[in-house]
Amino acid sequence: MRIILLGAPGAGKGTQAQFLMNKYGIPQISTGDMLRAAIKEGTAMGLAAKQVMDAGQLVSDEIIIGLVKERIAKPDCAKGFLLDGFPRTIPQADAMKDNGVLVDHVIEFDVPDDVIVERMSGRRVHPASGRVYHVTYNPPKVAGKDDQSGEDLVIRDDDKEETVRKRLGVYHEQTEPLVGYYRNQAEQGLTQYHHLDGTQPVEAVSTFLSNLLG
Ligand code: AP5
């Protein structure tokens, strides 16, 4: 099962990726998490990416395509994978197609910008696992601590309102055209396209996805 989760920053892709990963036993490939891991390791690529990410812009297609190519060639992707945050531009989607990587489902998370800005202000993350919480809508069992490891949760550097608004602008300009791109592919029978109301509560979105994917 190969799935693309498509949607604006904060639309809930990472939250549902954790749910789908546990339910279907396929890995989550989050380009954002991969970049944040490179930043933590202090690699040259990570340091260059940090400046771009903190400014709310997209990292170059070349770097991202290289990262994903390498990742999906690993053995744990043999049965499928969940792409979370990739592709984000038409060249990234074209690169995937040109390399013969087809996907079974493209799932669009639709959430208005104002809801997203509010969500991001309450987001807390566990960097080591990629688990995501919200202080009100999806709180951890113990405030400020990850449910499974008990480690501290953190606020992402790019979750400041000003940066979130910039990221939303970049999304509308560079990523939203992928909606038409994949609807087109679905019409040609190359994938299945699904639209999802991402303003529903977390559990309702998970139930929708379970019903959709079986
Ligand atoms: P990335 O890490 O991919 O961030 P993003 O796409 O901006 O998405 P997020 O992880 O911020 O949001 P999400 O949809 O996963 O929402 P979440 O589940 O956390 O990218 C970061 C940066 O890396 C980019 O800006 C770019 O610079 C670079 N980058 C990454 N990929 C790239 C690529 N392919 N090309 C170029 N550059 C790239 O939910 C958000 C909050 O809402 C949480 O608090 C959550 O608990 C809460 N929530 C979730 N669902 C619900 C719900 N249904 N109801 C209420 N609250 C909810």
Automatic annotation (TrEMBL):
Q: What Gene3D superfamilies is this protein classified in? A: P-loop containing nucleotide triphosphate hydrolases (3.40.50.300)
Q: InterPro entries per the record?
A: Adenyl_kin_sub, Adenylat/UMP-CMP_kin, Adenylat_kinase_CS, Adenylate_kinase_lid-dom, P-loop_NTPase
Q: Where is this region: LID?
A: 122-159
What this protein catalyses is: AMP + ATP = 2 ADP
Task: Name the CDD domains for this protein.
Answer: ADK
The listed locations are:
Cytoplasm
Q: Where is the Adenylate kinase active site lid domain?
A: 123-158
What are the binding positions for ATP in this chain? G10, A11, G12, K13, G14, T15, R123, V132, Y133, Q200
Write the record's keywords in alphabetical order, separated by commas: ATP-binding, Cytoplasm, Kinase, Nucleotide biosynthesis, Nucleotide-binding, Transferase
Q: Which residues does the record give as AMP binding sites?
A: T31, R36, Q57, L58, V59, G85, F86, P87, R88, Q92, R156, R167
Self-association or partners: how does it assemble? Answer: Monomer.
Q: What does this protein do?
A: Catalyzes the reversible transfer of the terminal phosphate group between ATP and AMP. Plays an important role in cellular energy homeostasis and in adenine nucleotide metabolism.
Report the family membership.
Answer: Belongs to the adenylate kinase family.
Per its record, how is this protein called by name?
A: Adenylate kinase
| Source species of the chain | Rheinheimera tilapiae
Q: What is the lineage of its organism?
A: Bacteria, Pseudomonadati, Pseudomonadota, Gammaproteobacteria, Chromatiales
